[in-house]
Structure formats: C-alpha cells, structure tokens
C-alpha cells in the first residue's frame, strides 16, 4: 500500500428540512452566550430530526422575489473599517430583502415564533435576567417577517460566510457578480439557516443567515405592478402635508399625502428624456416628462396649487412666520417648469412655445445602475446600458412616480419627484444636440442643468 496515498475530498450534501415537516419541539437551545466586546447576547439553536441527532436547521423558501440586494458598509459608526482578529480585512457582507410567496414557509415561521413565546416565558430569567409572562414575551418577540396589506409578506437576511449562488436559468449564465445576478425582480429559491435567538434589552428575535440561493427566473413584464393614482382619477381636496421634520444630515422636509397615503401617480404613454449630470465628482440622473397631455397637465396643475395653498395656510409652521401668497411665490418652486426662452415670454405676457415639463429624479449607483427601475417593455427585463438611454426621446408605456418629500433648503422650497419604475420602448429616437437651436428645445444642456439642479439638490440624503 502506497505510503503517500492521495486523499479523497468528499462533499457533504445536506438536505434542508421541508417546512411542512417542521416540529417546534424539535428545536434545541444552548445556554446563553455573550460577546462582551460588542455587547451582544444570544442562544444558539439546532434541530433534532432524530433522537440524539442535532443539526443545523436549514429550510428552503421557494419562489422569493428580490426587492433589494446591496453590499453592507464595512465600517463602524466612526468610519473605521472592520478587521478580523488577525488584522486582515473582513470579508464583504451582503444583505438581501425579498418578497415571500411560499405559504408553507410562512406558516412554519409563524409556528416557530409562537413556540418561542412559550420558550421565552420558560427561560425568561436566563434569557432576559427577569421573569416575564407569556403576554409580555409575545410583545417582546420581534417578528421575522414583514407583512403589508397590499404587498404581502417579505423577509430580509444576510448572506452567510459559506454562501453559494447557483443559476437554474439560461437567462442568468453568470453569478460571479451578485449585484447583477440578484437584480430586483429576480425569482429565487433561498436556503435559510435558523441558527440562533438574538437577545436584546426588552426584545428577542429569530436569527438567520442565508446559505444558498438558486436563481429560478428573472422577472417578466407581467410582474409589473402599477401603483398610484392615474391623471383621470385625481380628485382635488385630498392632499395633506405632514409635520415638518429635521433631517439627520441637515435641512428640513415634510411629506405629501393623497388620501392619507404617500403621493404616488401612475402615467401611461408619455414621452421623456433622461439626462446625466456631473457636479464636483458626483453623478446624478433625472428624467424630464413633457406635459403635453391635457389630463396629465390638469392633475399636475391641481397638485401644484393644492400643495402651494397648504404651504400658505401653514406658513408659520413651515417657514417660521406667516407668509402671503405673493411672498411664497418667490420661495416655493412649482412642480413643473418652462425652458428659459418660454420663461421670458411668460414674463412679457406672451404665450410659451412649448409645454412645461416635470423633472423626476432617478436613483443610480455604480454597483447596481438604475437597480431594475427602467425595463424593456417588450421583455420586462432591466435595461443595463444606461448610456443608451441618455438625451433621447423615450416612449414610456407605463411609469410609476412618487413624491419623496417637500424640501426646505437655502435655495428655496421644492417638491421632489422620484422614479419608482418605468417600462420603455427600446427603440428610441436620437437627436443631434449640437445642431439644435438654443431656444427650440428645453433639453439643451444649459436649461437641463438649471432645471435639474433643484431636483438633485432637493434631497441630499
């Protein structure tokens, strides 16, 4: 027998638990553990499928839909980068938030949480250093799932150290870049590890990590869910404003509501252009929508007037002193704007040559681009090459926009509009901007930068 025989690596395959087979009483809990350096406290958990055979509790949730996926900040509150004990840089961590469709998984989680109320009561002195009854433990338990009346269940989690991503569809051939592979709308199966109970001051919750994701498909056009009022559905008198708030990074703001809900509106078959702006090394994007449709123009006019009237009526609260409409006209910027040439014509009492436009901010990052917010209407897939969309008339089939807030800044008060999602025709018309006359299009560089400056400065969050 050779003395240096080769070692054979055997890959262990673990079969996750079927949610329907979950038995609460099979959960096993360790003693309380503490990390005194960072002040955390927890109980490790395992699952006993058979007597004397405890393993990690792995469960798969099927058909989840990616809502957001991002890399977590690798720095503490003081801006210092996290490092391992050996001085090496800590591995990047990623966080994902998903819509849940798997009713069996949802029921299993709720059964587990109900069992935790009982266990929390039994172990309250060890877990919380004080005796609590069942009702108190019910109030202390933080639910793992987020539930929304309209959008259903959702769950968030962090990718584990040994995380694996696999694609089961030809539409996603490469998973090396997770931010691309796990774009918004992607349908995935997720293997969760229920590994601990996190204990805090007056609260506790299930601790999970994500061990594996299998990509099943990417979102189709049929999954687009319009939200917000349509121009022909707008009814005056339903707008309200929230109290003014101080932002953490400076500046003040309030929010706009329609029927006591955040203001959102849904547009169809409009023409827009996307512009890219660079200022002091920062890149931003905004979309201009021409108000050519009479019904859309009527809604925007109505919203603009209602908001202005509310700011006048409550000017002492929002501006520190009672203001007349004439004074506020110089401070509050309308939702829509005209190009410079038409502004001069209006001042002279002349009729403008073009319809006004509304400006809509589009959030963008180097990692995720437009994050799936702009899709091809034919395929329903996100358009990844943003440069192809710039400075062209885009036929927008459907578009959802919302008001992020009203911003009270040193340059005036402005109403921010932000893109939620839109579907466009991929065939676009390109214009030769070099030959365009300065007074013939609002979209010349100078006007576009002036009009979009307020859009981009209106929320420095």
Describe this structure in words.
- The chain is an alpha+beta fold.
- It has two domains: 19-76 and 88-219, OB fold (Dihydrolipoamide Acetyltransferase, E2P) (Beta Barrel); 231-457, no CATH class.
- 19% of the residues lie in helices and 38% in strands.
- It is built from nine helices and 23 strands.
- The strands form three sheets. Strands 12, 13, 16, 17, 18, 19, 20, 21, 22 and 23 form a ten-stranded mixed beta sheet that branches. Strands 4-5-8-10-9 form a five-stranded mixed barrel.
- Helix 1 packs across helix 3.
- The longest helix has 20 residues, at 103-122.
- The protein is globular, with a radius of gyration of 27 Å.
What topology emerges from the helices and strands here?
Layout (H helix, E strand, L loop, with lengths): L26 E9 L4 E11 L2 E3 L1 E15 L22 E6 L3 H20 L1 H5 L5 H7 E2 L3 E3 L3 E16 L10 H4 L5 E14 L2 E15 L21 E3 L3 E2 L5 E3 L1 E3 L2 E2 L1 E16 L2 E9 L3 H20 L1 H5 L5 H5 L6 E2 L2 H8 L9 E6 L11 E3 L15 E18 L2 E13 L4 E2 L14 H13 L4
Parallel strand pairs: 6-10, 8-10, 20-22
Antiparallel strand pairs: 1-2, 2-3, 2-9, 4-5, 4-9, 5-8, 7-8, 9-10, 11-14, 12-13, 13-21, 14-15, 16-17, 16-21, 17-19, 18-19, 21-22, 21-23
Helix pairs in contact: 1-3
Distance between the termini: 69 Å
Radius of gyration, whole Å: 27 Å
For the record, the count of structural domains works out to: 2
* Number of separate helices: 9
User: Which residue ranges are poorly predicted, with pLDDT under 50 across at least 5 consecutive positions?
Assistant: 1-11, 220-224, 428-461
The helix content is 10-25%
The largest pleated sheet is described as: 10 strands, mixed
DSSP E strands, number: 23
Percent strand equals 35-45%
- Shape field: globular
**pLDDT averaged over residues:** 82
Specify the structural class: alpha+beta
């Amino acid at each position: 027998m050779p003395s240096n025989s080769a070692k054979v690596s055997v890959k262990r395959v673990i079969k996750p638990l079927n949610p329907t087979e979950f038995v609460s009483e099979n959960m096993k809990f360790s003693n309380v553990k503490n990390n005194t350096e960072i002040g955390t406290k927890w109980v490790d958990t395992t699952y006993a499928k058979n007597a004397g055979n405890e393993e990690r509790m792995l469960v798969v949730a099927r058909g989840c839909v990616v809502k957001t996926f991002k890399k977590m900040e690798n720095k503490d509150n003081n801006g210092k980068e996290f490092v391992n004990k050996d001085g090496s840089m800590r591995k990047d961590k990623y966080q994902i938030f998903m819509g849940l469709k798997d009713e069996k998984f949802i029921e299993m989680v709720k059964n587990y949480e109900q069992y935790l109320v009982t266990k929390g009561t039994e172990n309250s002195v060890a877990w919380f250093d004080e005796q609590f009854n069942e009702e108190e433990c019910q109030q202390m338990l933080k639910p793992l799932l987020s539930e929304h009346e309209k959008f259903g269940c959702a769950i968030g989690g962090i990718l584990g150290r040994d995380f694996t991503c696999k694609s089961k569809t030809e539409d996603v051939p490469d998973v090396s870049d997770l931010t691309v592979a796990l774009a918004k709308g992607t349908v995935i199966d997720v293997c969760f590890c229920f590994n601990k109970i996190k204990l805090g001051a007056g609260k506790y919750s299930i601790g999970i990590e994500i061990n594996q994701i299998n990509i099943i498909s990417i979102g189709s056009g049929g999954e687009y869910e319009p939200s917000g009022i349509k121009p022909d559905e707008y009814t005056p008198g339903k707008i309200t404003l929230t109290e003014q708030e101080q932002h953490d990074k400076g500046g003040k703001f309030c929010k706009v509501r329609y029927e006591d809900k955040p203001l959102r509106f849904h547009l169809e078959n409009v023409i827009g252009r996307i512009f890219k702006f660079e200022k002091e090394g920062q890149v931003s994007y905004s979309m201009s929508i021409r108000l050519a449709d009479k019904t859309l123009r009527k809604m925007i006019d109505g919203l603009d007037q209602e908001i202005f009237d509310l700011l006048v009526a409550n000017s002492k609260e929002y501006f520190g002193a009672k203001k007349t409409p004439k004074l506020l006209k110089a401070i509050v910027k309308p939702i829509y704007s005209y190009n410079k040439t038409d502004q001069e014509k209006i001042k002279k009492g002349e009729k403008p040559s073009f319809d006004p436009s509304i400006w809509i901010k589009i959030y963008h990052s180097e990692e995720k681009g437009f994050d799936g917010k702009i899709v091809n209407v034919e395929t329903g897939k996100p358009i990844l090459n943003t440069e192809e969309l710039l400075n062209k008339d885009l036929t927008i089939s459907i578009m959802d926009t919302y008001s992020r807030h009203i911003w009270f800044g040193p340059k005036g008060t402005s109403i921010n509009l932000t893109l939620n999602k839109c579907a466009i025709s991929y065939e676009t018309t390109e214009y030769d901007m070099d030959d365009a006359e300065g007074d013939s299009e609002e979209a010349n560089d100078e006007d576009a930068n002036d009009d979009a400056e307020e859009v981009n400065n209106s929320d420095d969050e």
